[in-house]
């Protein structure tokens, strides 16, 4: 059976899930989205994702045409319709069809799309051996231009940086902010371990405030690992004992090299492994 997509509250086969070519989501990246995971049939941190979706929409003056309760129900119904227990959910709200001009007031019908599918996981070798990163020359969006805290459909900034990573043979690339400090990767937040302290760029570093990032900070506190949200530079990563990335799809993935330099002893570190194990326990609670 074909994948069932939720389009404005109606479940339709993927072939029939169509939106207008005049949709400003397509024409201008005008819209917001979320990427979520379901584990053992339950959507991980659904409330946090809905909070972030509403914040993103508010930041771009997009009024969501659905209640929070209904959207949560529709996400669960889409998972159920596709018999997905462990999977990935993409929640998208576009500005809707308008004219060819930019004016968002011409778009009167925002489109709500929910795609639930099997997750294509990173290969296990990434977790066993760790990733290599390069620093992209493309900086993360300046917060005064388009705040990285808005999870908007405009991901061109990250896509260009991702291309730089791929050209260098890396699946992820490190992005700096307009000040030259570490922001995040193209689709993941970044952490280091420095002499037993877990450090990650603060929200004012120009990052998306990742749901996994926040969960990992909480786990670390429960495990008695000191945490700091702060300004980090590339130097901090070069001299770190451990480094890892977090994201809904990647979960917690070790990083062992940045710009051809080994981080720590060049192998996934013990605190990274502890946090990954604790994260795996948390998601199945
Ligand atoms: N940063 C960016 C740019 C992302 O796209 C993502 C993935 N949504 C993340 C960080 C990680 O966020 P989360 O843990 O909420 O998936």
Compute the average pLDDT. Answer: 97
- Output the helix-strand order: EEHEEHHEEHEHEEEEHEHEEEH
Radius of gyration: 19 Å
Q: How many structural domains can be distinguished in the coordinates?
A: 2
Looking at the structure, the CATH topology of the largest domain is D-amino Acid Aminotransferase, Chain A, domain 2
Largest sheet: 9 strands, mixed
Residues in β-strands, percent: 25-35%
Going by helix content, strand content and strand pairing, the class is: alpha+beta
What is the molecular shape?
globular
GO molecular function: L-isoleucine-2-oxoglutarate transaminase activity; L-leucine-2-oxoglutarate transaminase activity; L-valine-2-oxoglutarate transaminase activity
Family: Belongs to the class-IV pyridoxal-phosphate-dependent aminotransferase family.
EC number: 2.6.1.42
GO biological process, one term: isoleucine biosynthetic process
Keywords:
single chain; 285 residues; alpha+beta; D-amino Acid Aminotransferase, Chain A, domain 1; D-amino Acid Aminotransferase, Chain A, domain 2; 2 domains; nine-stranded mixed sheet; six-stranded antiparallel sheet; 28% strand; globular; binds 4'-deoxy-4'-aminopyridoxal-5'-phosphate; Branched-chain-amino-acid aminotransferase
């Amino acid at each position: 059976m074909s994948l069932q997509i939720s389009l404005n509250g109606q479940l339709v086969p993927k072939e029939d899930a169509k939106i207008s070519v005049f949709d400003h989501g397509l024409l201008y990246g005008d819209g917001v989205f979320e990427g979520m995971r379901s584990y053992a049939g339950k959507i991980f941190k659904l409330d946090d994702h809905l909070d972030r979706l509403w914040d993103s929409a508010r930041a771009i003056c997009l009024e969501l045409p659905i209640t929070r309760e209904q959207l949560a129900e529709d996400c669960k119904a889409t998972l159920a319709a596709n018999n997905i227990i462990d999977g990935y959910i993409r929640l998208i709200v576009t500005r809707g069809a308008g004219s060819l001009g930019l004016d968002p007031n011409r778009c009167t019908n925002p489109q709500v799309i929910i795609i639930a599918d099997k997750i294509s996981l990173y290969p296990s070798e990434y977790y066993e051996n760790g990733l290599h990163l390069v620093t992209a020359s493309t900086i993360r969006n300046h917060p005064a231009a388009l705040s990285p805290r808005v999870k908007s459909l405009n991901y061109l900034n990250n896509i260009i940086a991702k291309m730089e990573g791929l050209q260098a043979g890396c699946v992820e690339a490190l992005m700096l902010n307009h000040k030259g400090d570490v922001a995040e990767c193209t689709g993941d937040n970044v952490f280091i371990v420095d002499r037993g302290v877990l450090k990650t760029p603060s929200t004012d570093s120009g990052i998306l405030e990742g749901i996994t990032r926040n969960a990992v900070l909480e786990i670390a506190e429960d495990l008695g690992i000191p945490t700091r949200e702060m300004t980090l530079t590339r130097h901090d990563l070069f001299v770190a004992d451990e480094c890892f990335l977090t994201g809904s799809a990647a979960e917690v993935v070790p990083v062992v090299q940045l710009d051809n330099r080994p981080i720590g002893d060049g192998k996934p570190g013990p605190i990274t492994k502890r946090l990954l194990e604790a994260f795996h326990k948390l998601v199945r609670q």
